[in-house]
Amino acid sequence: MNAPDNSTQADAKPTPSDLQRSFLRHLKHTIVKDKYSATPADLYLALAYAVRDMLAERWLETQQAYYRNNAKRVYYISMEFLMGRTLGNSLINLGIMEEWEGALKQLGIDATDLQESEWDAGLGNGGLGRLAACFLDSLATMSLPAYGYGIRFEYGMFFQKIVDGGQYETPDNWLRYGNPWEFGRQEHLHKIRYHGRVTEYRDEEGMQRHDWVDTHDVMAMAYDVPVPGYGNETVNTLRLWSAKSTRDFELSFFNQGNYIGAVESKMRTENISKVLYPADHMAEGKELRLRQEYFLSSATVQDIFYRFSKKHGDVSILPTKVAIQLNDTHPTLAIPELVRILLDEKLLAWDDAWKISVETFAYTNHTVLPEALETWPVRILENILPRHLQIIYQINDHFLREVASRFPDDMERLRRMSIVAEEGEKHIRMAHLAIVGSHSVNGVSALHSQILKDDLFHDFYEMWPERFNNKTNGITQRRWLKHANRWLADLVSSRIGHGWITDLGELARLRELADDREFQQQWIEVKQANKRHLADLILRDTGVRVSADSLFDCQTKRIHEYKRQLLNVLHVITRYNRIKATPGCAITPRTVIFSGKAAPSYFMAKLIIQLITAVGAVVNNDPAIHGLLKVVFMPNYNVSLAECIFPAADLSEQISTAGTEASGTGNMKYALNGALTIGTLDGANIEIMEEVGRDNIFIFGLTSKQVTHLKRAGYHPRDHYLSDPELKQALDMIAGGTFSPDDPDRFRPISDNLLANDHYLLLADYASYITSQEQVDRLYQEPYEWARRSILNTAGMGKFSSDRTIAEYAREIWNIQPEIIRPTRRFNI
Ligand SMILES: *Cc1c(COP(=O)(O)O)cnc(C)c1O
User: Fold this and answer.
1) Are residues 107 and 188 part of one domain?
2) Modified residue N6-(pyridoxal phosphate)lysine is at which positions (predicted)?
């Protein structure tokens, strides 16, 4: 299933004067400014409001059509949505970018400048949150009846500054100037309960029933964000929940004359949606985080139930009308929450409630790293969600009985598979709960899904092989090529037409142009222009002057030991030493670009940032290097910065230890924009290699099987250090203070850690990585051959559209169909 042919769009487009009138009306009547007093932010807002108007009717019509036709809906529940900016994306999806640019130009206003004054919506950490955002774009573009559900964090991902070479976090107050893309829905409120106690009673049939009483309540209020499809009439909804205190809670304080107490308690309850936890691939065992997870889960399940109940009385058909996808385990409490509603409120029998729930839920796993797998102490759940803990125990009881009957006399298996971990303090394993409570469990690349079956969830695979499946991640080409890299998009369209925008497989037609010298030349010129643009940004943000003629070697992603930014640094240091050792050598000039945030509490990740900037300070200022090597760290990696970096990259660094990166999506964005990948056989890199061809990618390092064997056999990093003089030299420089003369021991924890454990096997992969980098250098000396392979990379990216991923989810997990929205009127502004 490809995105449907979206040719229903706008025969009649608005005229420039229509657009200008709408823009000026909003400037005057919504913002209340004129051309003398308007700031760039005001002009942005006026445009945003005018564009928003163009979405309104389609949005209402889409929602009515879903209701009228009683479509089966899919609900994508995610703690994170890393949306980035909305204006440019809306202009593209509405197909009115050029029209607006022209209309504003006549008023002396540059539309691109306005777009840049929009603040990123950064309600996510990295790949997981950005995947959710790409999925929303694909769902709407493919006319699928879908809703995203998340939390309206008042503070998103922190803003990163580099101070004295290290990361400094400041709060991301993204709503400060208002958000024109959200609509508060005072009427869509759900009560979210915490604490209290459970009472028992017998119903009319003599069944044991439960009431959850004396709870502390918070209200969840909906904020809706429109999600327009590309070139069609669909506008779906992203619904974000915000915590509000309940009125009765306040009144009880007021009645005691405790005014300040009432306000304080109001503030406390509203803290739930205050801030996003900024740790990626690291489970935070904080109570507030659990409250957030339940807040999202409960508000969403109640909302889904409310919408379902408007049309249906019989809850047994819920799975035929509702599919719920859990983005990682963060919203797993939605499972016991649905079961609770079915048991305690709809008074269903256990077996019926459980069957409905399992048929409704599906779970996506995003990581195999042990530190990222969520577990919650039973003690905390007992206090905050006593009824849910009972239900989880009951789920586990039924489940373990099933395991015991399938695998008799296997106590060890029961212990391993139990939802309750009994070692030390009792914990609930959220991934086990998610698997037991879902009819589908998927990984996000072929390798990752295989590892789930062979290793992490092997016991569950033996029990329910039919539940396990793969959905390789994807990215939306609307944002990551058409919007981010306009010049390349136009060049591509000039040769193969516009079909790729909704059918990325069309890019394969570029293959026959890969040898075309004229096309190669144009391809090179586009890359060069993008590099000049990025070079300007680098100068502005880091003060370092880099040459657009050097090879742009990019590693941009969260800073994490498993992603191995340090391996990249070891290459940089080695390169530096080689240039110094051979003055006047003919090495390929390179600019090594890093960007990414470290979790504020992750000591080693922050030290890695310091090392990168410290190496940059030495290398960039060493006259003996003659500009052959530059190292920059671009601060505050987010979607908007990513949109500038991907189009300018020559080389994409995807160098995680094999078996650790579930998929990666940065790898796909780079290749789509014509970067060549240097990477390990990890995550989706393997599938990228299959698509672009083994000759058009630089693969190095151990395979995930070799990693497993090496660890089992006993790994000795020091052997590599002792036998490889260049590696030894690089590590000795880190340890000895070459990059920290003011504090020679500053980076000792890094070298000590690599020599003592090297958990992610950097030293084992070092030699192979360096060899691979030498091949990169040689190829870059042949610009047309490089361009040919770059074209073949873009041409091979058809598989990695999130449209393909979503088509697979829709067919194989959700069983939902497109609901084509017919145009009812033309642009109405
Ligand atoms: C795509 C993207 C990511 C994920 O990158 P990986 O290299 O797959 O980890 C993280 N952050 C932003 C801003 C992105 O756009």
Assistant:
1) no
2) 669
Give distance in angstroms: CA of 664 to centre of ligand 1.
7
Q: Respond yes or no: is residue 366 known to be catalytic.
A: yes
Q: Whose CA is nearest to atom 4 of ligand 1?
A: 127
Q: Using one digit for the tens of pLDDT, what is the confidence trace for 482-528?
A: 999 999 999 999 999 999 999 999 999 999 999 999 999 999 999 99
- Cα separations (Å) of 680 from 418, 552, 701, 765, 772? 34, 19, 6, 9, 11
Using a 6 Å cutoff on CB, does residue 564 contact ligand 1? no
Model confidence pLDDT, tens digit, residues 407-431: 999 999 999 999 999 999 999 999 9
389-404 pLDDT, tens per residue? 999 999 999 999 999 9
Contact 508, 775 (CB under 8 A): no
- What percent of the chain has pLDDT above 70? 97
Same domain membership, residue 353 and residue 309: yes
State the DSSP string of 154-218: SB-SPEEEEETTEEEEE---TTTT--TT-EEEEEEEEEEEES-EEEEEE-TT--EEEEEES-EEE
Mutate to test the pocket of ligand 1, among 83, 130, 135, 481 (most ligand atoms within 8 A of CB): 130
Q: Is position 805 within any domain? A: no
Q: What is the full DSSP assignment across 541-561?
A: HH-----TTSEEEEEES---G
Whether 464 and 521 share a structural domain? no
In a domain, 821, yes or no: no
Instruction: Give the distance, in angstroms, between the CA of residue 459 and the centroid of all CA atoms in the same chain.
Output: 29
Instruction: Report CA(639)–ligand 1 centroid distance (Å).
Output: 8
In 3D space, the residue among 492, 674, 646, 501 whose CA is nearest the CA of residue 92 turns out to be: 501
Q: Which of 600, 612, 609 is nearest to 169 (CA)?
A: 600
Q: Say yes or no: CB of residue 126 within 6 Å of ligand 1.
A: yes
Would the pLDDT of 633 be above 70? yes
pLDDT of residue 530: 98
Q: Is 638 in the pocket of ligand 1 (CB under 6 A)?
A: yes
Asked whether 637 and 780 are in contact (CB, 8 A), the reply is: no
Note the pLDDT tens digit of each residue in 133-146.
999 999 999 999 99
Amino acid at 553: D
Helix (H) or strand (E) holding 611: helix 603-620
Give yes or no for residue 666 CB within 6 A of ligand 1. Answer: yes
Specify whether 412 is located in the same domain as 551. Answer: no
- In angstroms, what is the span from residue 79 Cα to ligand 1's centroid? 16
Residue 250: the pLDDT is: 58
pLDDT value for 256: 74
Q: How far is the CA of 643 from the centre of ligand 1 (A)?
A: 11
Is 636 part of a structural domain of the chain?
A: yes
State the pLDDT at residue 407: 98
Q: Could you list the residue range(s) of the whole structural domain that residue 251 is in?
A: 69-85+120-473+810-814
Is 703 one of the annotated active-site residues of the chain? no
Please give the Cα distance from 818 to 65 (Å, whole number): 12
Parallel/antiparallel/unpaired status of strands 159-163 and 146-151? unpaired
**Is residue 498 flagged as an active site residue?**
no
Residue located nearest, by CA, to atom 9 of ligand 1:
557
Q: Is 563 a catalytic residue?
A: yes
User: Does the structure show a pLDDT above 80 at 824?
Assistant: no
Asked whether residue 103 falls in the same domain as residue 81, the answer is no
For the chain, the average pLDDT equals 96
Same domain, 579 and 446: no
Q: Based on the domain organization, do 637 and 621 belong to the same domain?
A: yes
User: How far, in Å, from the CA of 667 to the mean position of ligand 1?
Assistant: 8
Query: Percentage of the chain surpassing pLDDT 90?
Result: 93
Q: What is the pLDDT of residue 827?
A: 53
Name the pTM for this structure: 0.97
CATH number at residue 625: 3.40.50.2000
* pLDDT at residue 668 tops 60: yes
Q: How far apart are CA 472 and CA 481, in angstroms?
A: 19
How many structural domains are present in the chain?
A: 3
